[in-house]
Design goal:
519 residues; alpha+beta; Beta Polymerase, domain 2; Cytochrome-c3 Hydrogenase, chain B; 3 domains; 5-stranded mixed β-sheet; 4-stranded antiparallel β-sheet; 39% helix; globular; oxidoreductase; Ni,Fe-hydrogenase III large subunit; NiFe-Hase_large
Length: 519
């Protein structure tokens, strides 16, 4: 729920000590002030009031995380961070998932990593540790022995899934293709999906553990490897969080160069997604054209950026591209190459026999459902939800304009929106090329003082947000909000009434990425 035009809150139920009506934000602000201006400590009763009020208050929820002693919930009223902190009591805390469904995945991960139990949670199944880790929970003060399960991980269905009747089909976790390991169980009624559930954790890399008490530059490098295709978005969001924690701002040209890299990444990833959708829909010719254009653009950018996947191109306070002085020329060349091929690609996509009809009957999702679950980005924009984090980044001023016009929320709408956004990215690169000079902006030296900061970036699949706590010149704790978390919930809810063979196409159109989800 990171769309800037939906950042208001309803001002509904709740009373302060004097009996005056208050909303959730006011309840949090009434808590005990911490050393961070936008984070407040609540008692358990106030936290429970917050959960109850959130059922009727549209305060945008970002994420939930734990540091071993406290649990933290982050919100974004009017696009600004607001966090509530609660001390764990006996390793437990009142769950947030009864009010915010996306919190269920965070609660399950917190239990696997820290052993902190969410009371009254809507889902208590493990998310990451399927009784195979050598130590569990690994991030608690005194980890115990891990599970004794040997061999393949067993599927652990919910009660509803276990009671479902029908023919069972399975997808994954090992598929033989390039996709990360991910398991889906389908219960079919005829050829249609009646019930569906997923299991993740196979691609867990321990990023949360590796980020604790680590050097800032090492966590920055880790951030670029969280999600393939969103590497720049994660790096820039992390760097912004560190810079905000240090009360520092980068030079205007560095911010513009970061925008150029973000739009390059959007181009590359949208082409990759469109190729995947076309391939899964049987349109191999369209897929090959998408990948051919992507390869041409990537080959042009790699010698200058230093990475085909745009990894390790951003550092706190600046950039780390191989030849920043050539970035202006690179933007101009990408625009020329893209503009030359784009019209033919769009024409091929729209006129390829049967492609539009197939995609038009897959994955129709309403904007209200996406807002409730918290999935923004192109999936939400294709359903008519006006949300784009780029409007909140000053470096986009004079470059960005909202891409809209899709309303039905089908896979076809998502594909056409990606094509529209590609054209916009090319236009922005063209404008940026005339503004980028030869000095590459320089790097701002940061004083790594103790503090907390957040950074928000609009990645190819939606808002990527980092919260960072610095202590003694290192990253004490880091939390990442990524759209893949909400995409998993949308995928599960959208699968029923689809043909089983369309599951992979639906997942591709929603930006599903098991490795990014697992962390």
């Amino acid at each position: 729920m990171l769309g800037a035009d939906r950042y208001g809150f309803s001002g509904t139920i709740g009373h302060d000590a004097g009996g005056v009506l208050m909303d959730v934000a006011a309840l949090i602000y009434a808590g005990e002030q911490t050393s961070t201006p936008w984070r407040f400590r609540l008692g358990e009763l106030a936290w429970r009031d917050m959960v109850d009020m959130l059922k009727r208050d549209d305060l945008p929820f970002v994420g939930l995380w734990c540091d071993g002693a406290d649990v933290h919930a982050l919100f974004l009223p009017d696009g600004h961070p607001l966090a509530a902190t609660l001390a764990l009591e006996g390793g437990r805390y009142p769950a947030l998932s009864p009010a915010r469904v996306a919190a269920s995945l965070y609660e399950r991960a917190i239990y696997d990593l820290f052993g902190a139990e969410a009371m009254w949670a809507v889902d208590v199944r493990c998310l990451l540790d399927h009784d195979v880790w050598s130590a569990a929970p690994p991030l608690c003060a005194a980890p115990g022995r891990g599970g004794q399960r040997k061999g393949l991980v067993a599927f652990q269905p919910s009660d509803a899934m276990a009671a479902a009747k029908g023919r069972v089909e399975e997808r994954g976790p090992a598929t033989g293709d390039l996709a990360p390991p991910f398991y889906t169980r389908l219960v079919l009624s005829g050829t249609l999906v009646a019930n569906a559930e997923t299991q993740t954790g196979y691609a867990h890399r321990g990023i949360a553990a590796r980020s604790r008490h680590a050097r800032v530059e090492d966590v920055c490098r880790l951030s670029s490897r969280v999600a393939a295709g969103s590497s720049v978005a994660h790096q820039v969001a992390f760097c912004q969080a560190v810079e905000n924690a240090c009360n520092a701002q980068v030079e205007a040209e560095v911010a513009l160069l970061r925008v150029a890299l973000l739009e390059m990444e959007r181009l590359f990833q949208h082409l990759y997604t469109l190729a995947g959708m076309a391939r899964l829909a049987g349109a191999q010719l369209v897929a090959s054209h998408c990948m051919a254009l992507r390869e041409k653009l990537v080959a042009e950018a790699a010698p200058i950026t230093g990475s085909r996947l745009l990894m390790d191109v951003c550092i706190p306070g600046g950039l780390s591209v191989r030849d920043a002085t050539q970035m202006g020329d690179l933007c101009a060349r990408l625009y020329e190459l893209g503009q030359k091929a784009y019209p033919q690609l769009v024409l091929l996509w729209r006129e390829y026999p049967g492609l539009s009809a197939l995609l038009g009957r897959v994955g129709r999702i309403l904007a209200d459902d996406l807002e409730r679950i918290g999935l923004d980005g192109p999936v939400a924009r294709a359903a008519g939800w006006d949300c784009d984090g780029r409007r909140m980044m000053p470096a986009y001023d004079g470059l960005w304009r909202y891409t809209s016009g899709r309303q039905n929320g089908t896979a076809e709408d998502r594909a056409l929106l990606l094509l529209d956004e590609m054209e916009e990215s090319l236009r922005m690169l063209d404008l940026a090329s005339a503004r980028i000079g030869l000095n590459a902006g320089g790097t701002v030296p940061l004083s790594m003082q103790d503090g907390e900061g957040t950074g928000l970036v609009e990645g190819p699949w939606g808002g990527v947000l980092y919260w960072v706590r610095l202590a003694h010149g290192r990253v004490a704790e880091a939390f990442c909000r990524k759209p893949e978390t909400s995409a998993l919930l949308v995928f599960e809810q959208a699968l029923p009434n689809h043909e089983a063979e369309d599951a992979a196409l639906l997942a591709c159109s929603l930006g599903m990425n098991a490795a990014a989800l697992d962390g």
